[in-house]
Amino acid sequence: MLLIGGSALALAMVAGFIYWDNSAHYENTDDAFIAARQYAVTSRVAGYIASVAVTDNQHVHAGEVIAQIDDRDYKTSLEQAQAQVAAAQANLENTQAQKLVQQANVEQAKAQIEQAKANLVFAQEQDSRYQTMMKSGSGTIQEAQQYEAQLRQQEATLNTDEASLTAAQRQLDAYGPQIASAEAIVKQDQAQLDQAKLNLSYTTIVAAQPGRVVQLSAGDGQYVQTGSNLAMFVPDKLWVTANFKETQLEHMRPGQPVSLTIDAYGGRTISGHVASVQPGSGTAFSLLPAENATGNYVKIVQRVPVKIELDDVPSDIALGPGMSVVPTVRTDPTASVWESLRDLL
């Protein structure tokens, strides 16, 4: 009997050591939940919902239509904006064409001045010649007076042409601000056109990424304001937030493999890996952190959130935020005694 009892005790001690050694390679917790960056699907424009293309809990791909808002008013606004841009562009082009015409007028006025200067030089020479001839007696006073009058006429013509050039140049300079104003109107109308295009595109509400539509509240014929919630969206990108005790973190590092048991699927397991360990306990980042500077203090082991990313999720498993899992992290990569015996057998 003593031999049997001793053998049983030894066997129990060996089994206990093997269990302890194997457990020392892992850390687990049942304080873990599926997490995601879920967000509200909202309307960016106001209007009546023409159609809803999805149902509750439906999976959608990126770019897939979720709902359509009646776009007739926004199409009309777009056409009006297009007409305003066309009118503003036509006004700009007309002003630019007028500037070109005025530039031609300035060049013509300059040419007239050059011609007037040449005529003036000729008139000065003729006047000087006949004045000399009159004084020498070879010319008449009438001829001298006639060419003097022509000289005065050419001087007046030159003055008139110079005044015309000055006026034409001022008109040309005035087109600079006019064109700048016309260009500003085109830009303003173009901005309104771009906004009209955006508003029209906002009437089609699409999924920004793959995921599931949940808590759908939108319905056909419903009027929605800008910013109204139509549904909640849960992206396919999920992870696990596991709250480990701080005493379990000594050997836990990013990249370590994790086996996750899913409560909702009868203990079925999926694989993952440690992504990161939060630098602080969960209570340290709460809205009202615990204040321990009091006379009565009881030490409590703190929980530290650990982010675990999922490696692959079978298509027949539908996970969602808040679902419970039990993660087991392999913190020691060396083989345990049990694993060594199992491999030998």
UniProtKB/TrEMBL annotation:
Multidrug resistance protein MdtA-like alpha-helical hairpin domain span: 106-173
Domain Multidrug resistance protein MdtA-like barrel-sandwich hybrid stretches: 38-233
The p-hydroxybenzoic acid efflux pump subunit AaeA-like beta-barrel domain, residue ranges: 238-325
Keyword entries, A-Z: Coiled coil
InterPro entries (alphabetical): AaeA-lik-b-barrel, MdtA-like_BSH, MdtA-like_HH, MFP
Coiled coil segments of this chain: 78-199
Pfam families: Beta-barrel_AAEA (PF25963), BSH_RND (PF25917), HH_MFP_RND (PF25876)
Family matches, as SUPFAM superfamilies: HlyD-like secretion proteins
Name this protein carries in UniProt: Secretion protein HylD
